[in-house]
């Protein structure tokens, strides 16, 4: 079972952090509460991510925030060996693109698995977890129970 709040990538001093805006604040607030939320269009019902003021499918501004299942599949990844400032003490880590069960894609980190290609199978089932990174909670993903490579 993936713990709701996981420990995987712990940035150090100088690591960049997101600056919530009025458009992105509901995403960050949900993450702090251990929920994964994306926007959904009230007109065409499309779920979408990254946060924005209008639906990318139909252009409607009738958008709202909804909690999603947190289930995803791995679409693509890179094992990062050259850490950004503040991540010098973090060993190789996985930067990935995942597709949420509800449709949107997200860039994230994969935790709970060795950062080696043999353990990262395209289309592997994933489940969201959350990490507190120096006071900012971020969604990350781990192999779904019973599906580790």
List keywords for this structure.
mainly beta, 3-stranded antiparallel beta sheet, globular, 149 residues, 5-stranded antiparallel beta sheet, single chain, 1 helix
Q: What structural class is derived from the secondary structure elements?
A: mainly beta
Global morphology: globular
Strand order of the largest sheet: 6-5-4-7-8
Portion of residues within helices: under 10%
Distance between the termini: 15 Å
Number of extended strands: 8
Oligomer: single chain
- How many individual helices? 1
Specify Rg, calculated over alpha carbons.
16 Å
Strand content: 35-45%
Average pLDDT, rounded to a whole number, is 90
Give start-end ranges of low-pLDDT stretches. Answer: none
Biggest sheet overview: 5 strands, antiparallel
Write the H/E string, N to C. Answer: HEEEEEEEE
Topology:
Blueprint: H1 25-32, E1 37-41, E2 47-48, E3 63-67, E4 71-80, E5 93-100, E6 105-110, E7 125-133, E8 136-143
Antiparallel strand pairs: 1-2, 1-3, 4-5, 4-7, 5-6, 7-8
Structure commentary:
With 149 residues, the protein is mostly beta strands. It has one helix and eight strands. The strands form two sheets. The chain has a five-stranded antiparallel β-sheet with strand order 6-5-4-7-8, covered by helices on one side. A hairpin with a 2-residue loop joins strand 7 and strand 8. The longest helix is centred in the first third of the chain and has 8 residues, at 25-32. It is globular and about 45 Å long. It starts with 24 loop residues before the first helix and ends in a 6-residue tail after the last strand.
């Amino acid at each position: 079972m993936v713990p709701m709040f996981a420990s995987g990538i712990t940035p150090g001093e100088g690591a960049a952090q997101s600056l919530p805006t009025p458009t992105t604040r509901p995403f960050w607030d949900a993450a702090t509460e251990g929920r994964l939320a994306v926007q959904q269009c009230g007109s065409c019902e499309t779920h979408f991510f990254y946060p924005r003021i209008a639906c990318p499918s139909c252009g409607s501004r009738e958008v709202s925030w909804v909690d999603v299942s947190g289930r995803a599949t791995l679409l693509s990844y890179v094992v990062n060996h050259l850490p950004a400032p503040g991540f010098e003490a973090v060993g190789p880590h996985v930067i990935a693109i995942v597709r949420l069960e509800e449709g949107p894609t997200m860039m994230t980190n994969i935790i709970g698995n060795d950062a080696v290609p043999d353990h990262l199978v395209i289309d592997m089932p994933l489940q969201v977890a959350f990490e507190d990174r120096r006071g900012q909670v971020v969604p990350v993903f781990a192999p779904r129970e019973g599906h580790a490579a």
